[in-house]
Design a protein that fits this description.
- The protein is an all-alpha fold.
- The protein has two domains: about 190 residues, MFS general substrate transporter like domains (Growth Hormone, Chain: A); about 210 residues, MFS general substrate transporter like domains (Growth Hormone, Chain: A).
- The chain is about 75% helix and about 0% strand.
- The chain is built from 16 helices and no strands.
Length: about 425
């Protein structure tokens, strides 16, 4: 028997959320190709530029604990659209920053709004996923990756023809803000604002973000967030260190070494665009285990490429890391947003907040190990991490999405 088609408002909301994911992926990726020009124009050292960029996750960490309350007050759709527009406006400030402190301040503010947008759009994605009664969150994250690839290519082209950074980022921010405003109407509909509240399934009231609830919420969500943190460690090997590894250990030029990141990003995008059907068929636990095995194989190839002096297997390895880790974050978001007794907005926001700590720590951890023993040896850290995911996969047992029969249950009103 064929599944019941989703209602029209769910299909419209799915398109609107896809736009938000695309825009979010495009915003940060638009800046990356312009960092050399920003560094030169402000006369920054590598350490100073790194410190300014580090203000982004710091802003996200500070905002992360408050996002759940914002979602409960205004709804995930409204919060996602509003914070998305603010992200678009702030991104232009990066090209206008006149000093290191100003640049760090802009990154900090961007981190606040980005964390808000990230948790809100993922929570709203769970709302629509509940309406569909099947996995669709993987596809949203695939759209995010598409946005990053498109914006990165556009940014590289703008840098190549000498478009001023401020003008480039201002146009990107304005265009994306207008697109969000033009397509976010379905997110604001009353039914779409109802957050999936799994307290309907479990006995007892839904947990809210309150000081007295914090220890219990952390105890419940930390195992879920650990999946995201370990994924961040694994992905850092490819996203942060692949080009450095290929230039320093294999002697490739910077341009050729950059292909590794392209392959990693492309394979992750492809994976996320097709993963939903496999999550439906195989379940979250099997997907995590299969992905961890593939990522482990990719890391083994990357590590072996150095002593074997075979760049081709390193390229294959980084591509495998992207494909293997592609389902991890959407699975974590679904698990965090469907924990019995915790409102989705709070679950997603707190888990995402915890993962941002991992995103701050991961590149530094690998970098410190690389300084001591070389990058090839440092990649053993993410290798061990993905292998540990295999026995930890059962933490996701029974948590995939809220099934269709719950769609018509009344949602608990925000506190």
């Amino acid at each position: 028997m064929s599944p019941t088609p989703p209602p029209p408002h769910a299909r419209s909301a799915r398109l609107a959320i896809s736009v938000l994911f695309f825009a979010n992926g495009a915003l940060i990726a638009s800046v990356v190709p312009r960092l050399p020009a920003i560094k030169t124009s402000l006369g920054l050292s590598n350490a100073e530029l790194g410190a300014a960029i580090a203000a982004l996750p710091v802003g996200g960490l500070i905002a992360g604990g408050l996002v759940g309350m914002l979602i409960a007050r205004f709804g995930s759709g409204r919060s996602a659209a509003f914070s998305g527009v603010l992200c678009c406006l702030v991104i232009a400030g990066i090209g206008l920053a006149p000093s290191l402190l100003a640049l760090a301040a802009v990154y900090f503010v961007l981190g606040v709004f980005d964390a808000t947008m990230d948790a809100s759009m993922n929570t709203h994605g769970l709302v629509v996923q509940r309406e569909y009664g099947r996995s669709i969150l993987q596809g949203f994250h695939g759209t995010w990756s598409l946005g990053g690839m498109a914006a990165g290519a556009l940014g590289a082209a703008a840098a190549g023809i000498g478009v001023p950074v401020a003008a480039h980022l201002a146009v990107v921010g304005l265009v994306l803000a207008l697109i969000i405003l033009a397509t976010s109407g379905p997110l604001l509909a009353g039914r779409s604002q109802q957050e999936p509240d799994t307290s309907q399934v479990a006995a007892g009231p839904s947990e809210r973000m309150h000081a007295r609830n914090a220890p219990r919420l952390l105890r419940i969500l930390l195992p879920v967030a650990m999946l995201g943190i370990m994924t961040a460690i694994a992905q850092a090997a490819a996203s942060t260190w692949s080009a450095v590894y290929l230039t320093e250990s294999l002697g490739l030029s910077a341009g050729v070494a950059a292909i590794a990141f392209v392959l990693y990003a492309a394979s992750m995008t492809v994976g996320r665009l097709v993963n939903d059907r496999f999550v439906d068929r195989l379940g979250a636990i099997v997907m995590v285990r299969m992905g961890a095995l593939m990522a482990a194989a990719g890391l083994v190839l990357a590590i072996a490429a150095g002593p074997l002096h075979l760049p081709v297997i390193a390229f294959a390895g980084f591509a495998a890391i992207g494909l293997g880790t592609s389902p991890m974050f959407p699975v974590m978001i679904t698990a965090a947003g469907t924990r019995p007794g915790i409102t989705a907005g709070y679950g997603v926001a707190l888990a995402a907040w915890l993962v941002r700590i991992g995103m701050v720590v991961a590149p530094t951890l690998i970098g410190l190990a690389a300084d001591s023993a070389g990058l090839g040896a440092a990649f053993v850290i993410p290798l061990v991490t993905v292998l540990v995911m295999i026995p930890l996969a059962p933490i996701l047992a029974g948590v995939r999405w809220i099934p269709r029969p719950l769609r018509d249950m009344p949602a608990t009103p925000p506190a």
